[in-house]
Amino acid sequence: MTDTPGRDPDVLTTAELATKLGLSPQTVRRMANAGQIPALKTGKDFRYSWQAVREVLRQPHHQPGGSADDPDTPDQTELPKKGAGYRAQRRARTGAQYPTTDTDAD
């Protein structure tokens, strides 16, 4: 990816974020529409802060309806083992990255 002069490298398009997370652009848009990741609506599409998205995806996932102190409730730090949101959170937590742009010198 080539850098556009004056463009903040932390701000990503849907396609760029999808590539970094290893997800489809459609899945990223769905996550943004559902409020699972922070996004700024720009016309028909979104812009994302890579740092903000990583921070959100690194947070433990809490299931609604249970208390972390309830012994009958499963461990709240465990993520459900399905869905694109789980994969994105896992990649963000482990620091796994797909083709990056911040260190590439194209």
From TrEMBL:
Chain intervals with Polar residues compositional bias: 97-106
Gene Ontology terms for molecular function: DNA binding
Xref: Pfam families: HTH_17
Location of region: Disordered: 57-106
Entry superkingdom: Bacteria
Residue intervals of the Helix-turn-helix domain: 11-59
Residues annotated as transmembrane: none
NCBIfam families noted in UniProt: excise (TIGR01764)
Name the UniProt record assigns to this protein: Helix-turn-helix domain-containing protein
Species: Actinomadura physcomitrii
